[in-house]
Amino acid sequence: MIITSLFLICAELIASLVLRLFKTTNLALHIGFVGMVVNALNLIYQTGGVILSPQAFWIPLLIISFFLTASLTMAICWSGIVIAITAWMLNQSLHNTELPIKPVRYRNQSQLKARSYHNKLSF
Predict the structure, then answer these.
(1) Do residues 31 and 14 make contact, with C-beta atoms less than 8 angstroms apart?
(2) pTM exceeding the 0.85 threshold for the entire prediction
């Protein structure tokens, strides 16, 4: 998650430079939106997907920010991208695919044994 946060910071700095140097608001908005979408959707994905994530509030927040800052066409396009990725994550959750799909790493065998013992005790 730290990588996408750094990506967001870089994207916003590049967007501000593009706006200052080239005076192109559309390009600056696109660069800023890419950073926002990548960071927010990765945060949702890494914390369990749309259904389980406590960060799911970012989805409507992104869509609202698109319509408040961009033209109608650009806002509809970016909203479509966010909705499509959200629908994919929702489809994965409904088909019992755990998000994120990452193996759990243990430092040593005692942590692995403790984890499996805890799983046997939990209902």
Answers:
(1) yes
(2) no
